[in-house]
């Protein structure tokens, strides 16, 4: 990441140095996940759509510990693998909106709330800014080479009441709480970076 762009990493010290952590990342561009993986202070295991695991990219993604997920149905293997990362005290990366969009945390799915409630892991909000500002001249699908991309880590927090309940009501309440915290972090990150 540092050889292609100029990432500016802010607040990485906020990431707990040990124990299970979920990084909830906005997703406006394809480079957001790799940018976080290349700048995070701990190894991050993302749930990535199975369509990305093709050709040589399949072996590479598996080799760096990424998790394949089938987004067309409830993928029990992906859920088990993700919970295993957290049970081992690792870091799970999730795009809470499920797919690329405006990167504004406007429509969260319940997956983030489920993993946070089930594991009791701390959630660290992460905002990537600048990746989708404009296309590159050489490769239009990527940000311009050597452009600045900001990665801003927020304060860790937990959701729920600590009981581990995963009822529909608990998931809905946790999703609302997550959306408020993530949206507030996005606002703070924009103010901090001037973007």
- Uncertain segments are none
Question: Overall mean pLDDT score?
Answer: 84
Shape: globular
Distance between the termini: 20 Å
Strand order of the largest sheet: 1-7-6-2-5-3-4
Helix content: 25-40%
Order of helices and strands: EEHEHEHEHEEH
Kindly name the structural category. alpha/beta
Largest sheet: 7 strands, mixed
Residues in β-strands, percent: 15-25%
Count the E strands: 7
Output the number of helix runs.
5
Round the Cα radius of gyration to an integer and report it: 16 Å
Keyphrases for this structure?
195 residues; alpha/beta; 5 helices; Plipid/glycerol_acylTrfase; acyltransferase; acyltransferase activity
Give a nutshell description of this structure.
The chain has five helices and seven strands.
Structural features, described:
By secondary structure, the chain is of the alpha/beta class. The protein is built from five helices and seven strands; from the N terminus they run ββαβαβαβαββα. A seven-stranded mixed beta sheet has the order 1-7-6-2-5-3-4, sandwiched between helices. Helix 4 packs across helix 5. The mean pLDDT is 84.
List the helices and strands and how they pair.
Blueprint: E1 6-10, E2 21-25, H1 32-39, E3 44-49, H2 55-63, E4 67-69, H3 76-87, E5 91-94, H4 111-119, E6 122-129, E7 148-153, H5 168-193
């Amino acid at each position: 990441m540092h050889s292609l762009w100029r990432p500016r990493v802010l607040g990485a010290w906020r990431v707990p140095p040990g124990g299970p952590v979920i990084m909830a990342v906005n997703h406006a561009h394809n480079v957001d996940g790799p940018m976080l993986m290349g700048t995070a202070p701990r190894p991050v295991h993302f749930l990535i759509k199975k369509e990305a695991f093709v050709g040589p990219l399949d072996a590479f993604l598996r080799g760096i510990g990424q998790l394949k997920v089938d987004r067309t149905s409830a993928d029990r293997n992906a859920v088990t693998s993700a919970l295993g990362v957290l049970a081992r005290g690792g870091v799970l990366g999730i795009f809470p909106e499920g797919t690329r969009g405006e990167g504004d945390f406007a429509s969260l799915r319940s997956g983030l709330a489920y993993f946070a409630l089930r594991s009791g892991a701390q959630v660290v909000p992460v905002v990537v800014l600048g990746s989708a500002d404009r296309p590159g001249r050489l490769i239009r699908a990527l940000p311009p080479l050597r452009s600045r991309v900001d990665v801003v880590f927020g304060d860790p927090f937990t959701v729920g009441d600590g009981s581990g309940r995963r009822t529909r009501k608990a998931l809905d309440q946790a999703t609302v709480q997550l959306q408020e915290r993530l949206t507030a972090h996005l606002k703070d990150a924009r103010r901090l970076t001037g973007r």
